[in-house]
What we know:
Elements: E1 2-6, E2 21-27, E3 34-43, E4 49-58, E5 67-73, E6 80-83
Antiparallel strand pairs: 1-2, 2-5, 3-4, 3-6
Amino acid sequence: MDVQVTSKEAGNIFYAAEHPSLHVRFTNRQDAPAKLTISWDVTDFHGKTTSHSQKVTVPGKGTNGGAAEAWIRWRNRCWAISMR
C-alpha cells in the first residue's frame, strides 16, 4: 500500500482565515481490496488536541488502478494536523 499525503497550502502552514485540509491518496499494490482506518489529531491555537478517524476502502490494483482518496478537513481554526 502506498500512501501520499499532500496539502494545497505551501509548507502545510494554515492561517486563521483558512480551513486546513490534507489530501490522502492510497494506491493498493495487491489484488484484494483493503479496508483501512486513517486517524489524525488536530491541535488548535490554544493547545487543545482532538482525535479523529475515517474509514477508507481501497480497491484492489485491478480496479481503478488500486487508487482511493480521502480528505482530512477541519472547519475551525487549528494550529497543526498530524496523522497517526
